[in-house]
């Protein structure tokens, strides 16, 4: 049984890919000459942007933590 965090990550990824697929479908409809709801397209793009921003913030936080751990190791190595 997956943990809570694993389940949450899977749900967020599933939601992200659902949004991406919706954007692709709207883009394909527009390319085919059909009219699309621009407001819905913009809303989906905003959701993708927010998801990617959160993902970047998490990566930055992890890299800072890794850097702090590695720098502490190097500091104690030289003492």
Describe the protein's topology.
Blueprint lengths: L3 H28 L6 H41 L1
What does this structure look like?
The protein is an all-alpha fold and 79 residues long. The protein has one domain. Helix content is 87%, strand content 0%. The chain contains two helices and no strands. Helix 1 packs across helix 2.
Quick structural overview:
The protein is mainly α and 79 residues long. The protein contains 2 helices and no strands.
Shape: elongated
According to DSSP, the number of beta strands is: 0
Integer tally of domains: 1
Secondary-structure class: mainly alpha
Q: How many whole angstroms does the radius of gyration measure?
A: 20 Å
Uncertain parts: none
Strand count, sense and closure of the main sheet?
A: none
Strand content: under 5%
SSE sequence, one letter per element: HH
Query: How helix-rich are the residues, as a percent range?
Result: over 70%
Mean pLDDT level: 85
Gap between N and C termini, in Å? 45 Å
